[in-house]
Amino acid sequence: MTVLVDLGNDGTGKSVPMDLEELLATRLLVQGNSGSGKSHLLRRLLEKSAGQVQQVILDPEGDFVTLSEPYGHVVIEAIDHSEREIIRFAQRIREHRASVVLNLEGLEAEGQMRCAAAFLMGLFDAPRDYWYPALVIVDEAQLFAPAAGGEVPEDARRASLSAMTNLMCRGRKRGLAGVIATQRLAKLAKNVAAEASNFLMGRTFLDIDMARAADLLGMERRQAEQIRDLQRGHFLALGPALSRRPISVKIGSVETAARSGSPKLTPLPDAPPADMKELLFAQVEEAPPPPPPPAPRPVPSEVLMEKLAASAPVPVAELPDKSAEEVDTIIADVLRAIVADGDSAFRSPSVLFQDFQVRCRMAGLSRPPLDLAGFTRRLSCARAGIFEKPDGEWAQALELAASLPDDMLGTFLLVARAAKEGTPCPSDQEIAATYGTSSLGRVRRLLGYIEERDLFVTRIDLAGKRSITIPHLGWTTQAADVA
């Protein structure tokens, strides 16, 4: 199901939508100088997507706590709780799918970094059963992922930077989609900014920031001048969830407002200078100090836990049923995309299974008919170039390989495919890529293990070329160099 979030218009009255499901898979970076409208943009995104997806907001200035009344966000005052309680809140948030605002206002920079690191790691380390999709919005991201060390202790900076890197680099597998906003790209760690695929670039003046923004938008340096001329609330948008080419968008209106607004000019007092001097130098009377306002009582962690548990879960839209043929086609296409990812060969099947489930849902399949074991076997087939559901002779080959561990199935099928088609025997490098290793010694031990079980017969001719026969099937590869 496609959910479009209306961000505003392109200046001609045409709406500019954002694909929410694509955003969950590709992440977002918002950049603009102070006063360019970043917080307004984030508020628009949050208001328009409320009820469609879980929202988790890291709020260093307390601007987003006003979302709690109209949209039901639970506000967590970080200053009232310990680090251990913050981690427990994060795990409960994932379990109950509650939308929350973590208010970091009142903490020093070091405290904000430590709290954000603990909170993000709590979200990240939640059990696999709670890996539901969620937007994680981080305002003023340069505070939590600085490009260089500052006045805070190094251990706090490293912890915060590591948590932000995990959110942007590995969060997608766990359903966490990072949406980060920063005043200056030059102050934001590059490995955090580089993981975003969607960009909304607002007004900025410094040449170094304009150059980086132009690079991210795919613009020439001379075109970057237009970033300096953007009006407040106007952004250049690019990315798979927005547009394939940079477009201008004027952010629409919002229903809520921050507790602190922009300063407005008010008339100065019209008292004559003499009267003003008399007021300033008047005898200061020792008046009794006014009684201090009553300090707000912190919300006990138990009460906050109950609020999180009682928070209404985000409804999960049911996708229409698919026919068996459509299901097979979607699974084959998803497996083809996973194998095409160069990094997938070195990721564990359990991690890739989460990626598989997310991709299937984005393709319109709510519940793929594969468990982890079934996915592992289909992945092994896909790595051998067999993307469709095995049948006929391939089903016989799979039955023959049933005695092998699952991680060796891909190697067996890679060789079996070459033997069935009569093509050259796969090289050690090809087998290593399928097995997920870079060790050629391990490849030779792997082939020896399969040969010991009478599944392979290996021949090396006088030219040093290798051919492999699968005797039970009568298939043989052509001779080819080992390397």
UniProtKB/TrEMBL annotation:
User: Cross-referenced SUPFAM superfamilies, in alphabetical order?
Assistant: P-loop containing nucleoside triphosphate hydrolases (SSF52540)
What is the protein name given in its UniProt record? Helicase HerA central domain-containing protein
Q: Which Pfam families match?
A: DUF87
Q: What organism does the UniProt record list as the source?
A: Stakelama sediminis
The cross-references to InterPro entries, in alphabetical order and at most eight, read: ATPase_Atu1862_pred (IPR014588), HerA-like (IPR008571), HerA_central (IPR002789), P-loop_NTPase (IPR027417)
Using the record's annotation, list all stretches that form the Helicase HerA central domain.
Answer: 11-78
